Amino acid sequence: MRLFLCEKPSQARDIAKFIGADKRGEGFLSGTGVIVTWARGHLLEQADPVAYGEQYGNLWRLDVLPLIPQQWILEVKKEARGQFAVINRLLKQADEVVIATDADREGEVIARELLEYCRFQGRVFRLWLSALDDASIRAALADIWPSEKTEALYRAGVGRGRADWVIGMNLTRLYTLKAREAGISGVMSVGRVQTPTLAIVVRCDLEIENFIPKPYSDVIATLVSDNIAFPAKWVAAAQYCDEEGRCVQQ
């Protein structure tokens, strides 16, 4: 049996009508020798730190940091257990899987992490869909790729996710504990993306707060050449200008 694994139900319905999978099941659509099922985004998530040892539990400690897992642990999201059970059962019946998730890094991770977690041993292919109009679906179905062609996207996505986890879990605990030593309560949340973004916002806010207006001069004249009048702006020499190119000397 060939199993198409999509990222969401709407995507599954769009594909199913082209492969004869018109019978509705609980969490899937089926046809002769083919089944289409779907995730709902990521069905798996990184385990909490305590899964790697009691020393990483709710009582945060500096002496056990950093936590860098040697064997990564994924868990099924609580709200996704029903659909995960459907996919897990179908994978046990399938001879081959066609990954039909979104054509990007996260789409690759959503599908392949399920295949690894469920220990699927059959053949794997990739349906690369850049759009879900009829012509695009037909073209993609006529040119299904070997899974190796997009495996690098999966590895990149896994690396990004693990980097986020290592940075977030370790630095949040470190900064929170150091803040407590300084008498500051609360959690000091640190993230690979959120913290640099926050720094940009704070830097801009400080620039606005500390802004000191400077007088500057623009010299604009109306010139005439061949009886044609036109405005012209004088460009001051660099030594008379500030960093924005404005003349700040009289």
TrEMBL record:
What SUPFAM superfamilies does the record point to?
Prokaryotic type I DNA topoisomerase
Query: Which domain of life does this protein belong to?
Result: Bacteria
This entry carries the following GO cellular component terms, namely: cytoplasmic replication fork
Instruction: Check the record and name the Gene3D superfamilies matching this protein.
Output: 3.40.50.140, Topoisomerase I, domain 2, Topoisomerase I, domain 3
What would you give as a GO molecular function for this chain, any one? Answer: DNA topoisomerase type I (single strand cut, ATP-independent) activity
Tell me where in this chain the Toprim domain is found. Answer: 1-133
What residue stretch is flagged as signal peptide? none
Pfam families for the chain: Topoisom_bac, Toprim
Task: Give start and end of each Topo IA-type catalytic domain.
Answer: 150-250
Entry keyword RNA-binding: no
Keyword check for Nucleotide-binding: no
State the UniProt keywords alphabetically. Isomerase
Which CDD domains did the record assign?
TOPRIM_TopoIA_TopoIII
- Please, one GO biological process term? DNA recombination
Put simply, this protein is called Omega-protein
Species this protein is from: Salmonella enterica subsp. enterica serovar Java
Q: What is the lineage of its organism?
A: Bacteria, Pseudomonadati, Pseudomonadota, Gammaproteobacteria, Enterobacterales
